[in-house]
Amino acid sequence: MSSETATDVLDITGWTCPAPLRDQPRIVMGHGGGGTLSAELVQHVFAPAYGGKALAQLGDAAALTLGGARLAFSTDSFVVRPLFFPGGSIGDLAVNGTVNDLAMSGARAAYLSCGFILEEGVETRTVSRVAEALGAAARAAGVEVATGDTKVVEAGHGDGVYINTAGIGLIPDGVDLRPQRVVPGDVVIVSGTIGVHGIAIMSVREGLEFGVEIESDCAALGSLVEAMLAVTPDLHVLRDPTRGGLAASLNEIASASGTGVVLTERALPVPAAVAGACAMLGLDPMYVANEGKLVAFVPREHADAVLEAMRAHPLGRESRIIGEAVAEHPGMVVARTALGGTRVVDMPLGEQLPRIC
Amino acid sequence: MKYIEEFQDPALARRLLDEIHATVTRPWALMEVCGGQTHSIIRHGIDQLLPEQVELIHGPGCPVCVTPLEVIDKALEIASRPGVIFCSFGDMLRVPGTDRDLFRVRSEGGDVRVVYSPLDALRVAQQNPDREVVFFGIGFETTAPPNAMTVHQARRLGIRNFSLLVSHVRVPPAIEAIMQSPSCRVQGFLAAGHVCTVMGMEEYPHLAEQYKVPIVVTGFEPLDILEGVRRTVAQLERGEHTVDNAYPRAVQAEGNPAARAMLEDVFEVTDRAWRGIGVIPGSGWRLSAKYRDYDAELRFSVTDINTCEPAECRSGEVLQGLLKPFQCEAFGTLCTPRTPLGATMVSSEGACAAYYLYRRLGTTPAPATPREATGVV
Amino acid sequence: MCLAVPGRVLEIQERDGTRMATVDFGGVVKEVCLEYLPDLCVGDYAIVHVGFALQRLDEESARQTLELFAELGMLQEEFGDPWETAAIEEAAK
C-alpha cells in the first residue's frame, strides 16, 4: 500500500539537501520533534510551496512591517497528551507557547486567535476545563483572545482536544532580535532550570509512568523579556527552547548565525529530579523540552546587567551564564564537560526516546 | 543522585588521570566492550584526557547496533501485521532494517509502542486479550534476565497472546571472536560492568589466560572508567593478564544466581549473527524448548526472512580497531547517520557516527585547559 | 550496553504473585521488580535495569573505592593541584 504513494507524489529532483526526505515517504513522529526532520520538512516541502521573505526568517515569530508598525506574528499548534499534566494543561500551553514565540522577537503579545479541534465524544466538561485554563493563562499573560474557531472530527481521529493559537504583538523600536546578529564573544544566558516540562509530561505518559516531584515550568515570558529589554534593547537573539530542548535552540542559532557555541556543562542548571529521570531513561537534559524558559545571546558588555535584571524577575531567579559564542567551529555547539573534555552537542534528529544502552 | 554524582567528581578524576599518566610508558590499545561505556567516554570527553599512548577502541557492546539486519526485518514484518501490538525499547525504533524502520511502520498504521520495561509489554498483553502483543527482546546478559522473567510470568499467568522476538547476545564469545582475529590489536579489555552484575566474573579467567589479556570489570561513571583504564594499564605495564574487578560496589564474583538460574531455564545458547560482524558461534540465546511457544519468529512464521548485510560495510574491521572510519569507501557517501549501513554508524556513539560528527569540528577536540595547566602531555 | 542506575528501595509489596518495590532515583520514583533480589530490604540500594533490580549496591565498597581514589597522588597535594584550581575558576565563571 505504500509503494504507489511513496515516490510518485514527492518530486525529489532539485533537492539540495544531502540527506533528502526520500527515505521518509510518510510523516513520522520525528517530523514534529523540532529537530533535523522538522527542519527538513519546512525546507523541502513547505518553504518551496509557499515560502516568502517573511517565512525565510524561520524564527519563532515573523517580524513584519505593516502600516508603519513593526509586528511580530506567530502561530503554534498544541497536541499534548495527556491534556492535563503536573503543573499545567493544554490550555496553558496554547497561550504561553504563542505568547513566548512573540516574546522571543521582543514583542508583548496583544491579541491571540484560538482554534479548537475537538474529537467527537470528548466530554464537554473536559473542553470546559481546558477553556478555563486557557482563559486564566491569557489573563495572566495580559493578552486578549480576539477570535476563534471550532471544528469537530470523528471519534478516533484526534486525541480529545487539539488547539491552534496565533498571536500578534508590537516590536518596540530599537529591538532587533535574530540569530544573524550573534557575534563571537556574545554571552549565552539561560533563564532557569532545564528539562522540567519534558520530564513532567513524560512522567504521566502511558507506558512510562513514574513519580516525580516536579511540575511543568509552563509560563508566559513576556514580562521577563521586557525586564531584559529595559536594561538594553541591544540583545542579539532570544529563543524559548521547547521541543528539542536547549540543544535544538542553540544549534539553530549557531547554524543561522555562523558562529560556534561553547557551553560549560557544569553551569547548566539541571534539577535533581530531571537529572534522576534522565539517568533512568537514558535521556540528555539538554534535549528535553522546556515551556517557561528562554535562552539569550547578549553582548558581553551588557551581560552582567541583563543577568541581574533576569534574576530580579520571578521567572528568571535561577538565570545563569552557560557559555559563549565563538568564532571557531561555526554552526556547531560544543560543551566543555566537568572533567575538562569536550563533546559535540548535535542537533537532535527527531523526538527523544527512552533508551536502554 | 547518590552513587552517581560521587563517581563523576572532577578532582578525583584528576587524581586517577595523573596516576594513569604516571604509569603509562608505552602505547596500549584497550577495548571498552560496552556501548554504555562508550557513551560515557564520549559524553564526558574522557578519551581526550587520557595519555596519547592509551587508545580506546570502541567495542561491539551496543545491543541496539549489533542486532542483525535480518532480525530487524523480522521485527518490521511482525509489527506491520494487523492485530499486532509491537512493544520495544525506545532505542530500537530508528534502527534501520533493509528499507524502513519501526517509526515508519508506525506511520504506515502499525501499532508500535515504546515501553520502559518488558513487564510493561506483558501488561499491554493483559489489557488487550484480543490482540497479539510482541516484545522485541534484544540486549546482552543484563537485559536477558528481565526479558526471561517476562516470558516466565506470561507462562505462569497463562497469558497466551504474548510472545518474544529474541535477539539476545552474550559478551564472552564476542571477546573470544575479537581475540581470535589474526590482526587483532586489542591488548586489554574493560569488561562490561552491568553484564557482570548478572553473570559474575567466572567466564573471564580462561579468556584472560588463553589470550594473555587483562580483563578488568568496569563501571559506567567517569571515575569507574578511569579506574578500569588505570588497572588495565597497570597490568599491561607489569606484563600481567588477570581478571580484576574495578566495579566492586555492583559486581560480585558469582553474579546474580537467581537471574542466572532463570536464564538457564528460559533460554538456550545458539549461534548468532552480529550486525556488521557476522555470525559468532555460541554468542546468542534463544528460547528453550520449554518456552518455544512464546517465540514470535515461530508464531508469526518469519523464520524464512534471510537478509544479507550490505557488502560495502566494513564495520567489523572498524570495531576491531583495524580500520579508521574515514578509510572505508562507504563512509560519508553511502553510509551516514541518516542512512547507516553498519553497527558503527547506527549508534550515535558508534565509531563511524562519532567520526562523522566530529570531523565537522575540523580537528579532534582541543585539549582542555586543566591538562595544559599541569603540563602533562 | 546497559543503562542501569542505582536507586533506593522505599517500599516492598507483592503484585500478581510477583515481588515488586517502589524505588527512588534521586526524587524520581518507579516500580521495580525484585524477583531476582528477593532479600533486598527497604533502605537498600540496588542497580536497576529496565525495571528490574539486578544486584544489591554494596555501599561499604562504594565508600572504600572513593577513599582509594582520594588517596591517589596524595603527594602532589602540598604543591597544590592546578587542575582543581582550573576547575574552580571555571565553575566560578
UniProtKB/TrEMBL annotation, chain A:
Residues 60-171 form the PurM-like N-terminal domain. One of its GO terms (biological process) is protein maturation. Residues 184-329 form the PurM-like C-terminal domain. Transmembrane segments: none annotated. InterPro entries: HypE (IPR011854), PurM-like_C_dom (IPR010918), PurM-like_C_sf (IPR036676), PurM-like_N (IPR016188), PurM-like_N_sf (IPR036921). Belongs to the HypE family. This is Hydrogenase expression/formation protein HypE. The lineage of its organism: Bacteria, Bacillati, Actinomycetota, Actinomycetes, Kitasatosporales.
Automatic annotation (TrEMBL), chain B:
One of its GO terms (biological process) is protein maturation. InterPro entries: Hyd_form_HypD (IPR002780), HypD_1 (IPR042243), HypD_2_sf (IPR042244). Pfam families: HypD (PF01924). The keyword Metal-binding applies. The keyword Metal-binding applies. Signal peptide: none annotated. Keywords: Iron, Metal-binding. GO terms for molecular function: 4 iron, 4 sulfur cluster binding; carbon monoxide binding; iron ion binding. PANTHER family: HYDROGENASE MATURATION FACTOR HYPD, HYDROGENASE PROTEIN ASSEMBLY PROTEIN HYPD. NCBIfam families: hypD (TIGR00075). Belongs to the HypD family. This is Hydrogenase formation protein HypD. The lineage of its organism: Bacteria, Bacillati, Actinomycetota, Actinomycetes, Kitasatosporales.
Automatic annotation (TrEMBL), chain C:
One of its GO terms (biological process) is protein maturation. One of its GO terms (molecular function) is carbon dioxide binding. It holds the Pfam family HupF_HypC. It comes from the Bacteria. Belongs to the HupF/HypC family. This is Ni/Fe hydrogenase formation protein. It comes from Streptomyces mangrovisoli. The lineage of its organism: Bacteria, Bacillati, Actinomycetota, Actinomycetes, Kitasatosporales.
